[in-house]
Design a protein that fits this description.
By secondary structure, the chain is an alpha/beta fold. It has eleven helices and 28 strands. The strands form seven sheets. It has a seven-stranded parallel sheet with strand order 13-12-11-10-9-8-14. The structure holds beta-D-galactopyranose.
Length: 625
Amino acid sequence: MPGAGNGCRARGTAPLGGKPRWGLQFARFNHRGRTRYLRVNSDPQEDTGETHAPVPFYVVAGTPAYGALIDADRIVTLHVASTVCRGRDVPVRDRTTDRRWQATPPGDAVEAVIAGGAGMRILVFAGPTALDAVRRYNLFFGGGTLPPRWGLGFWHRTPTRFTADQVVEEAREYRRRGVPCDVIGLEPGWHSAAYPCTFEWDPERFPAPAAFVAALAAEGFRVNLWEHPWVAPRAPLAAEVEPLAGSHTVWGGLAPDITLPAAREAIAAQHDRVHLAAGVAGYKLDECDGSELTRSSWMFPAHATFPSGRDGEELRQVYGLAFQRLTEELFRRRDRRTYGLVRASGPAAAPLPYVLYTDLYDHRRYVRALCGASVSGLLFCPEVRSARDGEDWLRRVQAVCFAPLAMLDAWSSGTKPWSFPEVADAVRQAIALRMRLLPYLYTAFARYHLDGTPPVRAMALCGDGAAPLALADDQFLVGEDLLVAPVFAGERERTVLLPAGTWHDFQTGEAFAGGGEVLVRTEMERIPVFARAGAVIPLMPDLAHAPHAGDTVPLEVLHFGQCPGRFALYDDDGETYAYERGAWRWLDFRVELALDGSRTGTADPRCAEVGPGLAYGPVTWRWMG
Ligand code: GAL
């Protein structure tokens, strides 16, 4: 996205009435009154704006709300009502006599500055609600990603240096214990060398890659590969990449200039031949997010030069996006959808099939990041790695099971879902619920694709502009009708903000009046989840893995409250891009209310037929609340 303007400085003129937010941020949600330095950094800096995916897109949650994107490939510094230009009327107070003094009183505008004189383009996205502004932003870039159905199942990453046999054994343990799992992720150790990477299989640990992938596929698992972009000098790929790489190395590896088509093609051809041909389903794109000024030095410096003419600073800002596009294109060529993880991203990322993660591992910040990401066309995975104790483990698993990607990353801990026996049953239940919700989640992603609505989103995007909701960063919405309030270890109760209307406890059906706060006593077995009155939620059985096109899946459909309801269930083959060519369908589920209050559910008669994807049946109804 080259900047198109002439100037390097822009000042908004509209009064800044609401609460701006920028990309993936862990420290806060509302950035008004602060200066943000939006540089990609693997080591998220405490409240400066630097993270894995800073996005210069902000939403002003006023009436009407709107969004604005500062479109530039370079680091953008944003002064969010934190500066005051001459000529503005601000109170001048004598600090020696007036306790209300402020060195910089709040301003009324956003100023965006780009170092080095590069241009910028400013795109404004109309509301009227904050959700509308975000939808328009996502749609402008092509709509949100629609993952393969299996991508929404549970993921497990095995420890580094595991052999093929150890991986298969670990995966089988999921089946033996009846814990659903769809994806097995390999960490460093599958390459013949990592740090930097050869991108070739290790002949001892993985002597027969295609047979290994096929053995897992036979039991319903897909394989995801960890990699970073730095090419080992001994890699067969090195000779081709050498003339297309930058002036500096990373971990001793070549840094390919992947903004060049020739570099992308060389990497794509090798990946296709060595990974996709063996049946690999996706990647975890790691360590494409460094900055030389912090402790993580896995990046070329800002002054590095590249064959495309870009310098290191610019390339660092776009590397994660370019890496995502390169790998998505690979799968698209084979008409196979992928879903994976990435450590760096930026603007215009909604259509890319990647979810962000971090090493930060603070549970509260994870949930805040999950909320904030949704306002900027990003998806975030609050992955589970380890825990202080069983309670902490359970609370983390319960939250991640409502995230855009639900994953246990055991790369260094070697943990399993059942590692804390005292909570193993509850952990299984949380993962099973994730699997049961799959048709609902898949539909939420279809909406992300078609109308830009983030599948998991901050309360600020609930359509109800009430101020406390706009600021809530410890609860979120999933799909159209579910509200999830994670619990953090040690909490015995928590408050939940409910938007206007009636809400029902997802488990018991108990009704709560919305439009305010409710205090909920927490239980170990589950975290508070509420369904909107009238919600119709289809649940499938907790199968070992996601169903395949052509399978018949029974549905239990829950309906909440004493009001009519409707749900349009999206379906397609769950694997290919055929949906882009029209091979999809919506199935209608309705609930009517008789005068005596009794409810009747009607499932779309086409349910029972195999569509482009699944057949659904038998359909049973459960009345809640
Ligand atoms: C880190 C990454 C971890 C894990 C590890 C393997 O950079 O965040 O999730 O993949 O590398 O070395």
